[in-house]
């Protein structure tokens, strides 16, 4: 048994935290990112200090205590404390802590980027990062929907040129304009899905399932963990998903709500095989080495997917922006390490709502 303490500290531009409004913006960024780990986080106390600083106490179930302090000199500190009983896993691992730290730094940079053109900002966020962390301005005029599931922050925003856009954890995912994304992922006109058995990992926006069903497959099973994403997309993005998210099971398809890895294990144990497995999950991490929770997850998906494929089956997935050369190379290195050996091809498409070119992978047994 032990007391767990995690301290984060950031050096800020003191001019960017000089006013109460600016300090509140920073505090909101911190809380949003911490809520990805502590989903039941509540604010217990906050105050503006006389010397131009800020102090807040947050808690989760009165067991995890988090203090946040902004100093007038431009220093931000976050202290997380909780009691860890013997045999229990830490609430925040080293990898998770690094991810939170990087996300806060990234969002603060984006926040201050948003403040430059103040006349355009309005009441809704209009700036989101590209795959290589450039800040892109969108013509967003309305926040259509916002909620937080047990897994992520969900937003649907309306763009004048792109239509409704799905934003997950403040990262653009898909918009009504993005049919090219789905068609390139599935290789429309290249792959033949008629009479085939297909497994989709993720795909909660429903777009891939909707387009695949037009190709007359034998059956499609979709494994999606977030029910709330599907409900939101069914209501506000039905131009890309049709009515497929209305039901969870038909003769043509089944949507299983749960952890895809656990269901993949079950399918493997049952000897179930597929002609196609789609990885419509997390993007390739932007990192200098293939280490950490995200890379471990990618390797787990690889391992299980190829156990589910028929000998002539194919694993199809999205990669990342074509400008992310180092991360794409790391991803391909992981493919080359797989046993049995695999081979892969790639395709590219400019995705309107990403405002950049994206890379897609087609992987088969060598």
Automatic annotation (TrEMBL):
Coiled coil: none annotated. Residues 125-366 form the PABS domain. The keyword Transferase applies. Pfam families: Spermine_synt_N (PF17284), Spermine_synth (PF01564). One of its GO terms (molecular function) is spermine synthase activity. Keywords: Polyamine biosynthesis, Transferase. The keyword Ribosomal protein does not apply. PANTHER family: SPERMINE SYNTHASE. This is Spermine synthase isoform X4. It comes from Drosophila albomicans (Fruit fly).
């Amino acid at each position: 048994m032990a007391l767990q303490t995690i301290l984060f500290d950031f050096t800020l531009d003191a001019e960017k935290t000089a006013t109460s409004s600016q300090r509140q913006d920073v505090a909101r960024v911190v809380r949003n990112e911490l809520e990805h780990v502590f989903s039941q986080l509540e604010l217990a106390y906050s105050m503006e200090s006389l010397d131009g600083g800020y102090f807040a106490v947050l808690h989760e179930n009165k067991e995890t205590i988090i203090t946040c302090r902004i100093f007038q000199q431009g220093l931000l500190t976050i202290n997380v404390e909780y009691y860890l009983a013997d045999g229990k896993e830490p609430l925040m691992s080293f990898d998770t802590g690094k991810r939170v730290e990087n996300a806060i730094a990234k969002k603060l940079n984006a926040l201050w980027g948003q403040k430059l053109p103040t006349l355009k900002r309005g009441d809704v966020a209009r700036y989101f990062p590209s795959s290589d962390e450039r800040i892109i301005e969108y013509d967003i005029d309305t926040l259509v929907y916002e909620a937080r599931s047990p897994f992520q922050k969900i937003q649907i925003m309306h763009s004048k040129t792109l239509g409704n856009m799905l934003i997950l954890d403040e990262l653009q995912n898909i918009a009504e304009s993005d049919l090219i994304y789905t068609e390139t992922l599935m290789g429309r006109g290249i792959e033949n899905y008629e009479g085939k058995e297909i497994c989709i990992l993720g795909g909660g926006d429903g777009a891939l399932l909707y387009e695949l069903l037009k190709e007359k497959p034998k059956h499609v099973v979709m494994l999606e963990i977030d029910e709330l994403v599907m409900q939101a997309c069914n209501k506000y993005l039905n131009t890309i998903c049709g009515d497929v998210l209305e039901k969870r099971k038909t003769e043509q398809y089944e949507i299983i709500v749960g952890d895809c890895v656990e269901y993949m294990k079950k399918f493997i144990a049952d000897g179930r095989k597929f002609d196609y497995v789609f990885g419509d999950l997390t993007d390739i991490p932007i990192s200098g080495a293939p280490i950490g929770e995200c890379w471990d997850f990618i390797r787990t998906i690889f391992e299980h997917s190829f156990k589910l494929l028929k000998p002539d089956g194919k694993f199809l997935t999205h990669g990342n922006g074509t400008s992310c050369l180092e991360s794409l190379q790391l991803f391909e290195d992981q493919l080359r390490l797989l046993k049995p050996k695999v081979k892969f091809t790639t395709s590219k498409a400019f995705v309107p709502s990403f405002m950049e070119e994206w890379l897609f992978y087609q992987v088969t047994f060598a």
